[in-house]
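Exercise 7b. Backbone tokens:
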């Protein structure tokens, strides 16, 4: 199993490097986030042994269990699931990043609850980029105002935007919503925010996301195999 996961990691990293070249992105511009939801701690440990450092989790309790099992490893944990108000304290205390902030109230709680001995919590705002697909995420119309409010919170560091577009099979169809997210990010930059992260692309659409400027792809299935 360890050998298998190490080989899959190398295959995904190779796919990322090839896409960077194909779409004229600088080499190393795209970071891999390994999404371990429903996967056992042993699988994460195997990827960590193969060199992977950034791991994404969707459910707080599942993540906390894995963190305590893997405490000896120096891993960077990213929360990528829906953030409920009653989960913000655990997230603020245990994660380095949150990709799925979609309400100002959630951001305010995360900032208030971020412990002083930790660096500011890195956050992305999740944007509902094609509204039919999901109810999660900010509407495009509210992103600029909320981004400035979040950027002003003392214990958060606004890093960029995240989206989960509706599934599509053709590269051109996959690219459209990612292009839109990049445009929104460029608008934010033009209003004075210093952003460096576009969290977009999953196992089935990472090439399209890299083509449109992803700086971080969130990959589960291509690394760990199908979830059951
Ligand atoms: C599960 C999940 C992923 C990974 O999806 P795969 O298709 O398995 O690569 C990425 N982002 C989020 C927010 C997820 O919930």
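Sequence design result:
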């Amino acid at each position: 199993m360890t050998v298998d996961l190490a080989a899959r990691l190398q295959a995904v990293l190779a796919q990322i490097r090839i896409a960077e070249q194909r779409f004229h992105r600088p080499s190393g511009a795209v970071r891999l986030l390994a999404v371990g939801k429903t996967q056992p701690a042993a699988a994460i440990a195997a990827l960590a042994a193969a060199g992977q450092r950034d791991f994404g989790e969707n459910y707080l309790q599942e993540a906390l269990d894995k963190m305590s099992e893997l405490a000896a490893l120096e891993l960077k944990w990213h929360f990528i699931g829906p953030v409920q108000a009653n989960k913000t304290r655990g997230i603020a205390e245990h994660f380095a990043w949150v990709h799925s902030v979609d309400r100002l109230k959630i951001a305010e709680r995360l900032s208030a609850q971020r412990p002083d001995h930790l660096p500011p919590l890195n956050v992305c705002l999740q944007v509902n980029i094609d509204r039919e697909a999901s109810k999660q995420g900010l509407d495009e119309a509210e992103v600029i105002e909320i981004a400035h409010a979040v950027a002003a919170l003392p214990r958060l560091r606004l890093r960029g935007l995240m989206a989960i577009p509706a599934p599509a099979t053709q590269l051109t169809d996959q690219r459209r919503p990612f292009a839109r997210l990049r445009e929104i990010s460029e608008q934010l930059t033009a209003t004075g925010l210093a952003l460096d992260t576009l969290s977009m692309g999953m196992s089935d659409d990472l090439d399209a996301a890299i083509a449109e400027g992803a700086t971080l792809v969130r990959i589960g299935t291509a690394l760990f195999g199908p979830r059951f």
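Instructor comment: The chain has one domain: 2-224. Residues 129 and 180 are 7 Å apart (CA to CA).
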